[in-house]
Amino acid sequence: NSNMGNIAVPLNTGQVILGNVSWLRIVNQNLSTGSQGATIAYSNNIKVSNNICSWNYRNGIQLKEVNDCKVYNNTVTSNYDHGIRFDNTNLRNEIINNTVTGHTNWDDGIHGGELRYSIISDNFVQNNHEGIKSSGRYNLIMNNTIIDSLEDGLDLEGGHHLVYNNNCLMICPG
Fold first, then answer.
1. Facing residues of 99 across strands?
2. Residue 137: beta bridge partners?
C-alpha cells in the first residue's frame, strides 16, 4: 500500500481510478461523463469530498475493499449505475452529507454492500431505485432524508444496525 502523504489529486482530473493507496484526497473535482466518476479499491484513509459526479456510464463513486475512508459533501446525480457504491467488506467508513439523486435504472442512491462499523448520516437521497441499501452489519444510519424511491427508502439486509431519525417520504413500491 503506497502512502500518498495526504496529497490531493490534481484539479481537473476528469476521472479517478486508483488502487492500493492510502492517505489521498479527491476534492473539488468534476468527475462526470466518464466510465466511472471515482473508483477506489484496496485502499484506506481516502477522503472523497466536494466533488460533482454525474452522468457516468457506471457508478458516480465506487469503493471496493476500503477501510477508514470518508465520502462527504459530494453531489452525485444521474449515473447509469449506483450513485455511491461500496463493494465487498469495508470497515469504518463514513458517508456523510452527500446529495445523491436520479439513479432509477434498478440501482441505489447509496449502495452500502458489506459496510461494517460505518456511518451513513445526513445524506439527501432522492429519486433512486432504492434510497440506501446495505447488507453489512453494525452500522450507524441516521439523519438521512430519502425521497421518492421507486422501491425501498431503506433496505437493510445484514442486521445489527443502529437506525434513527431518518425521513423516508413518498416511497412508491415497485
1. 75, 124
2. 116
Cα–Cα distance for residue pair 78/90, rounded to 1 Å:
25
Cβ(164)–Cβ(142) below 8 Å: yes
Query: Comparing C-alpha atoms, which of 9, 94, 99, 86 is closest to residue 54?
Result: 99
* Residue 127: its H or E element: none
Q: What is the pLDDT of residues 135-173, one digit of tens each?
A: 899 999 999 999 998 888 999 988 899 999 999 987 555
- The burial of 39, by beta-carbon neighbours within 10 Å (0-12 exposed, 13-18 middle, 19 or more buried), is given as buried
Grid coordinates belonging to 171 = 416511497
Please give the model's pTM, rounded to 2 decimal places.
0.94
User: How many C-alpha atoms does 40 have within 13 Å on its Cβ side?
Assistant: 29
CA proximity to 91, closest of 113, 121, 117: 117
Angle at 152 (CA atoms; ends 150, 156), nearest 5 degrees: 150
- Return the residue matching grid coordinates 477522503: 47
How far apart are the C-alpha atoms of 168 and 80, rounded to whole Å? 23
